[in-house]
Structures are given as structure tokens and as C-alpha cells.
Amino acid sequence: MSNIHFMPTPTEITYSILIQKPVEEVFKFATTPANWVQWHPATIWVEGDIDHSGMPGDKILEGVKIGLFRGEILWTVKENQALKQWVFEGDTRLPLNKGTKPTITYRFFPQDGGTLFERHLIYTPPTPFSRFLNRILIKRSNRSQSRRAVANLKRVMEKQ
Fold this sequence. Notes:
By secondary structure, the chain is α+β, with helices and mostly antiparallel strands. It has a single domain (12-159), classed as Alpha-D-Glucose-1,6-Bisphosphate, Chain A, domain 4 (2-Layer Sandwich), CATH 3.30.530.20. It is built from three helices and seven strands, in the order βααββββββα. The chain has a seven-stranded antiparallel sheet with strand order 1-7-6-5-4-3-2. Strand 3 and strand 4 (69-81) form a beta hairpin. The longest helix is centred in the last third of the chain and has 32 residues, at 128-159. The relative contact order is 0.24.
């Protein structure tokens, strides 16, 4: 009898929104981690390399609330293609969900005199229990927070 191993399916969440501001402004604001507390509903605080558009190798420690859980995510910036794409990977330190390694990609497209901003989150819960939590709670919370985040970013940016 063969030993069959199933690869867990990654969770992917993508939202985009048109922001009536130039790409340069949206890119600088969204990729500067000190600004996250102004627009991302999961972010409680940030520390580390936070006062500039993150560059590859920069580290950001983020205090988060996701669903019922509070914890930290240590982010490392992996890519900064100025005005086009920004990628960062995390090491999740949340109770009952440790070890999840999310990757977030921000993409920026000039459109209609503004910026089409896209936020893509992908992660694979590493354990059967974390996959169960993802199915019943975390994925729904991540979807809601991601949707609110892009709407908040638009609201904050268009007030400036």
C-alpha cells in the first residue's frame, strides 16, 4: 500500500481598487510600513524598518489582530520594483496558527488619471489544525480585512 500525502491548497485573496492619486504617491504611501496603521484593519502597530518604502531585506514586525487572535508577523521585504510591484513575506506568530508563511504582493497600475492598486495575499496553513481554523474562521477574517484595507487605502489617499 502506498503512502499518499496530500499537499494543502494555498489560500489566495486578491482585491483591487482605483485610487484617484498618481502611482508615485500611492506606491510611496502603501509601501511605507509606518502608514499601515492608518489603513489596514489588522495592523495594531509596526516597528523595524518602517519609515521608508521597504527595500529588499528590510524587516518589519507587525502587531496584528486576525479574527479572534492577536499576535505578531515578522515581514521581510523581498522585492521593490519602484512604482510597479512590492512583495513581502511573513513569519506568523499567532496563537494556534504559528508557522504560516504569508506572501503579500502589491501591484500598481496607472489608470484613468489615478492608480489601480491590487493587493494579493497567499498563504498555506502548515498543520491540519491551522487548516481547520483557516476554513472556519481565518480565511473569512482575512477576506474581510483585505477588502476593508483596500477601501481604507483609497479613502485615506484621496483625503490627502
